[in-house]
Amino acid sequence: MKVEIEESKLQTAYANACDGVKDFMESLFGKKVFEAAKPTLDDYKTIRTYEDACKALGEPIFEDPNNLPNHIIALMKLETISRALWGRNFQPKPDGEGSKVYWYPWFALWTKKEVEDMNPEQRGALLSASAHYGADAGFGCLIAHLRSSSANALVGFRLCQETEEKAKYFGQQFIELWAEYLKFNFTVGNRLK
Predict the structure, then answer these.
(1) What is the rounded radius of gyration, in angstroms, for the C-alpha atoms of the chain?
(2) Rounded CA gap, 83 and 103, in Å?
(3) In-domain check, residue 141
(4) What pLDDT, in 10s, does the model give residues 37-89?
(5) Inter-residue contact 17 to 52 (CB < 8 Å)
(6) Are the C-beta atoms of residues 30 and 58 closer than 8 Å to each other?
(7) Residue 191 domain-assigned?
(8) Parallel, antiparallel, or unpaired: how do β-strands 151-153 and 142-144 relate?
(9) Residue-range definition of the domain harbouring residue 69
(10) Would residue 61 count as lying in a domain?
């Protein structure tokens, strides 16, 4: 019998295994196969879990002695992961001139088909909610209204990435943590009718 395993799946299994299972896997496949699986600040794709981010940064895993709300814990973990994904050489700095673009994982609550099936009034309400505020990214939450222009910074920079590819990875790889952070006071999977 022949069994084929994709290397990426094997490395993911290794990353999530306990020490005894890791030893077994190393003896079966060789240590070299798993070297790339070790979390490092040099390759953001090696950061596959919150624990990987802590290992790469050399930080302890957060333990909650105060029973903080789940969405706050998720945010703290996302901030740690974001720093690990930035990598060793990226030093984020405020850009007062707005010449640097940063990327934020963006999540849709509706499918493309659901939006297309909306009547014009529903679609207009949905689109005007985001169009009213313009581009949403920044270092804090700053809003200037009732002037000749409107400038907004509504998404915290700590969760932004320097490339679109990294932001997409951040959103997809850690979707459960994002859901825990964003679902405050509603259940993911339920929708209003």
Answers:
(1) 21
(2) 14
(3) yes
(4) 688 899 898 899 999 999 999 999 999 888 999 889 999 999 999 999 999 88
(5) no
(6) no
(7) no
(8) antiparallel
(9) 39-182
(10) yes
Do the beta carbons of residue 64 and residue 76 sit within 8 Å?
A: no
Angle at 119 between CA 188 and CA 172, to 5 degrees: 30
Q: What is the pTM of this model?
A: 0.62
Do 54 and 22 fall into the same domain?
Answer: no
Token pair for 79: 């901030």
**Residue recorded with tokens 């105060």:** 66
Amino acid at 110: W
Tokens 């994709």 sit at which residue?
6
The alpha-helical segments, DSSP class H, found in the chain are 7-16, 19-29, 32-35, 50-57, 70-86, 112-117, 120-131, 164-173, 175-182
Using 50 as the pLDDT threshold, list the residues of the chain that sit under it. Answer: 128-142, 188, 190-193
Residue 192 within any structural domain of the chain = no
